Amino acid sequence: MGNKQHGSSVDRRSFLTYSGGAIGASVLLTGYLSQDDDNDTDDVPEETLETALLVPSLEFTFFARMEESFEDAQEELNVEGTFYDNRNDESTQASNFEDAVLGDPDFIMVSPITSEGIVPSIELANDEDIPVVTIDRDAEDGETATYVASDNVDLGYRSTSLCLEFMQEQEEQDTYQIVELQGTPGASVALERNEGFQEAVDEHDELEELDSQTGEFTTEDALTVTEDFITAHGDDIDGVFAQNDLMALGAQRALEAGGMDDVPITGIDGTDEWVEQIIERDHYGTIAQLPEEMVFTAVEMGRRAVEGEDLEEFYPIEGLEVTQENAEEYLEDVDVADEGEEDE
């Protein structure tokens, strides 16, 4: 990965031009599909397919947005299916996946809690010849039709690099020391975002990793871990990279309580609560994901798998850099698309 060309920042205005003005069903199935002349994405498929979508937990806004998009996809892409909230529990995930398989769907979409824990479930689907599309998080083993997600290595790299930009804008120094809040241990998304973080540290000579601990993708855990960072390192902390926005909020609360609210923080996801903080502060940022596009793409890939098409191993969904300059516009756009939906 060392020679990889990371995606450049996508400003909000260029995305609005690309998407037609809203993050929602109307923007989806562009990008990769526009390059395939054999597909007319304006036509709703005639055959109704049965499917299921399983996500780690609806406590994360990111997955709540997936649920809403799954409902839209059922109307617009002619699928019917069941949505499962696995409550961040691997035994619940296994039980729900088994229920989905027993329903004999045409294909299953799943965002695994961990890349290892989902393997027996995928093998169960393999035994029944049910195609599986992993979405946002991948599986370590088992046969899957494809994987639809953001390039999480790139998201980690870009968010860390954005944090460095904020630190450099604040003060010129020879070195900048950054701490990382990692997600759920063993989750592919956490491993990949850490890889991107490490690439950014390796590429920028002036950037040094001060500490890295798991915040479990939650605000409360991230607050506690950041308090520990402050106790251990104090003013040596120049910036915080959080692997998701919920942990960025936890870091913010700990730093403000410690009188260190000038420390830059960057996250990943684009959730409302964190973007609202970005509007107020020029040293906060995030790389927003598009769960809506992930769901629509995964549904289309599932249909293609059922039809016997050969698929790529990975269909990437590009992220959007959100800073104080475009945060308000971003929120307005999300509100239009979601029409009151709640927010990972």
UniProtKB/TrEMBL annotation:
InterPro entries: Peripla_BP_I, SBP_2_dom. PANTHER family: D-ALLOSE-BINDING PERIPLASMIC PROTEIN-RELATED. Pfam families: Peripla_BP_4. Residues 52-309 form the Periplasmic binding protein domain. It comes from Natronoglomus mannanivorans. One of its GO terms (molecular function) is carbohydrate binding. The keyword Signal applies. Belongs to the bacterial solute-binding protein 2 family. This is Substrate-binding domain-containing protein. It is found in: Cell envelope. Signal peptide: none annotated. Keywords: Signal.
